[in-house]
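re: ur question from yesterday

yeah so i grabbed the chain u mentioned. its 219 aa long if i counted rite. heres the sequnce exactly as i have it in my notes:
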Amino acid sequence: MGRRYSAILKNMGHEIIGFDMQNPGNYKSIEGFLNNHVLCDKNYYTAAIVCTPTKFHIDSINALTFFPTPILCEKPISDSVEKIKIVGNTIVSMVCNWAFVLSGKILKFNDNEIHYNYYNAGSERFSNPDPCFNFAMNCIQLIYLMREGGKSYLKNTSPFFDCKINGERVTLEMVEQSYERMLHYWLHNPKILWDMKDAAAATQRVYDYVQFNPKTINF
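ran it thru and got these structure tokens back, copy pasting raw so excuse formatting
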């Protein structure tokens, strides 16, 4: 995931500082990573991206609070609503590239219909061992986009990427392009993206979705 952001940002003309995906030890201590890679002048940086495994997100965000820069964090920020709510940093955005899939503008949050069927829809495991919960949490963006009464068809059965939003077929190329659109908006106006309130609401939405819509998640 970090390689994707690095490649896109370099292509956009930005300098990448402190990027290191070769050393798994970086995940053990965000403070150690910052000490090894970050310059003393905090004002030198324009933005920070957190794309570690989810269980390290909150600690990484807290460690970056002394930077006067917007922070973009991979989704979900946490699988715990309570942990998200206690984060004091107000300039954190959660990755929401799926909101930019169909066009250069963010998708409307209401009246969405999403059909998504992909066996490899995310392999990260969370605190809840339930496979339905894990699949739903990996699909947190899609579930949150449907929070205003949209219709959903989430399945984890097909080995092929099969997705439609509002009747329009989505390709993997469109998904890749959505990351570039999202980063463009984030760098110019971070408030357009989902903030910490959205992140907490999205995580809660996953819990509610699994509880009340178990039949829409098929295995």
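noticed a couple things. The chain has a mean pLDDT of 81. also Residues 2-218 form one domain.
anyway ttyl
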